[in-house]
Design goal:
The chain is built from 13 helices and 20 strands. By secondary structure, the chain is of the alpha/beta class. Among the domains are: 222 residues; 108 residues, Immunoglobulin-like, CATH 2.60.40. It has an 8-stranded mixed beta sheet with strand order 2-3-1-14-15-16-17-18, with helices on both faces. A 4-stranded antiparallel beta sheet has the order 8-9-5-12, with helices on one face. Strands 6, 7, 10 and 11 form a 4-stranded mixed beta sheet that branches.
């Protein structure tokens, strides 16, 4: 027998399928943006890159932009290991220039130099008098040889020769950079090279340095982060000290790190000291005096290693200390004075030790690995909290149960920080900042982190009506890193 009407099963069991709402994707703090003032081969506001070859197409293989982009992909691991992408934004910032001094045509004076075994040259570099004595030119045969003798004096100035002249260029940029020459003082037994038969200082032509101008990096970065997120900032712009410090101050308020190179040794105790004193820890500085372009390439190489951490991995956290900047030569102008100054003023250096080229990382309101970890932790906590509140088809109740779930979401990020090696169990050495002291210390000692919120029952009515969660406070004990070791050996005969 057949029936014309069937009662559907849904009359008894009514099934609805509800999908979990999608959440935010994690912020990729390892992505890097280059703000380039080289001519770009595209009209869009930016381009994304997975390989450096496409950068060569857009900017030219001889451009600084391509050289810096290529440096990002050179070391292993690099920012791609950490899942980062490269974004390049056209940037209308005008380069600062360096002060310089160029001699007249002195090509006919080479033979005169050959008779000098105790020469003296009185230069003023960036306002600091630098008189060099004991110069021996007896074996020179060309202007390039004269340059080599001067370069061996480790002066804080670039020196180069043309066919007819020698040019001295300050290693810093801006109106504070300058090079002048004058007659020697207090060296009666030496040959003064200021005279017309040698450097002909009276006829030398000085050129003043200029400051950076045009669009500011701060403006460019703020506009760019409205379009795509990136955690690292590089620029092809050559900057004077005031511009670098303004960049550092502006980027300190943003969720990214600013990587900049210094080319003058003396800037360690000037610009480096100012950045550290202003607590601008998101600016990571590397000093390299080998050349302006070389320094830009080195800081890009530095940045890609700093951004190489895969935060989702196990024991992946790194430190910049003793890392090799692949493809870069160590600084050829370092001395004990500058190494100690870098340590004091929080500037990293790239030096040769026993034939190895390595970074010596220093503390500018935290080491580079500290700053990178803090950036990742902040952005990850933001996403975890948002997704916990978002990924429900009902609501998170304003109860202890709801707060427990929220804190558990934050706890997963803290656990991952332990897994990747950024956080480790230890002892909290200062006064306990919040929560129950015994519980606080126990959690730090056993897990490396502690999460606390005041009871819902203590919440103000105003906050409750605003549907605001009690403040969640998190303490983490970072794992730190061993950079130095002292050893005492006792020997008995």
């Amino acid at each position: 027998m057949s029936y014309s009407y069937q009662v559907p099963p849904s009359y008894t069991v009514n099934v609805s399928i509800a999908a979990t709402p999608s959440g935010l994707a994690d912020y990729n703090t390892n992505s890097i943006a280059i703000f380039s003032n080289d001519p770009a081969g595209f009209s869009e506001s930016y381009q994304a890159y997975i390989t450096p070859s496409a950068v060569s197409t857009d900017f030219g293989s001889d451009s600084l932009t391509y050289a810096m982009a290529n440096a990002l992909y050179t070391p292993v691991p690099n920012f791609r290991t950490g899942g980062g992408y490269l974004y390049i934004f056209p940037f209308k910032g005008v380069n600062a220039t360096a002060g310089s001094l160029t001699t007249d045509d002195i090509s006919a004076n080479v033979t005169n130099f050959q008779s000098v075994t105790n020469g003296v040259l009185n230069l003023t570099i960036d306002g600091t008098a630098t008189q060099v004595e004991g110069l021996d030119f007896s074996s020179v045969k060309a202007l390039a040889d004269i340059v080599t003798v001067l370069q061996n004096q480790n002066l804080d100035v670039y020196i180069e020769a043309t066919d007819t002249a020698i040019k001295f260029t300050s290693k810093r940029f801006g109106t504070d950079s300058s090079v002048t020459v004058a007659a020697a003082t207090g060296a009666e037994e030496a040959t003064d090279l200021y005279g017309s038969t040698y450097f002909d200082g009276a006829s030398a032509t000085p050129a003043a340095g200029t400051n950076a101008s045009g669009q500011t990096l701060a403006e460019a970065v703020q506009a760019a982060q409205q379009q795509v997120y990136f955690g690292g900032v590089l620029t092809t712009q050559y900057c004077d000290n005031a511009t670098v410090q303004a960049n550092a101050a502006a980027i300190q308020a943003l969720d990214c790190s600013y990587f900049e190179a210094m080319t003058s040794m003396k800037n360690i105790a000037e610009l480096g000291a100012d950045i550290k004193a202003a607590e601008l820890g998101k600016t990571r500085s590397l000093e390299l005096s080998n050349g302006a372009k070389e320094a830009k390439i080195a800081i890009a190489t530095y940045a890609t290693i700093a951004k190489s951490v895969n935060w989702d991995g196990s024991n992946t956290a790194n430190t910049m200390n003793l890392k090799t900047l692949t493809g870069c030569l160590p600084d050829n102008g370092l001395s004990d004075t500058y190494v100690l100054s870098a340590q004091t003023n929080g500037v990293d250096i790239y030096a040769n030790t026993g034939g190895l080229s390595v970074v010596y990382s220093n503390d500018n309101n935290g080491y580079t690995d500290d700053i990178e970890f803090q950036l990742w932790l902040k952005k990850s906590i933001e996403v975890a909290g948002f997704n916990y509140l978002r990924q429900t088809n009902t609501k998170i109740p304003q109860t202890e149960s709801g707060m427990t779930g929220l804190k558990n979401a934050y706890g997963l990020i803290c656990e991952q920080a332990v897994t990747n090696g950024s956080v480790a169990p230890g002892t909290w050495n200062n006064s306990i900042p919040f929560g129950d002291p015994e519980t606080f210390q126990k959690n730090i000692q056993e897990k490396g982190y502690y999460i606390y919120s005041a009871p819902i029952s203590q919440q103000s009515q105003t906050d409750r009506e605003a549907r605001k969660a009690p403040v969640v406070q998190i303490a983490v004990k970072t794992s730190g890193a061993i950079h130095f070791s002292e050893v005492i050996i006792n020997i008995q005969r």
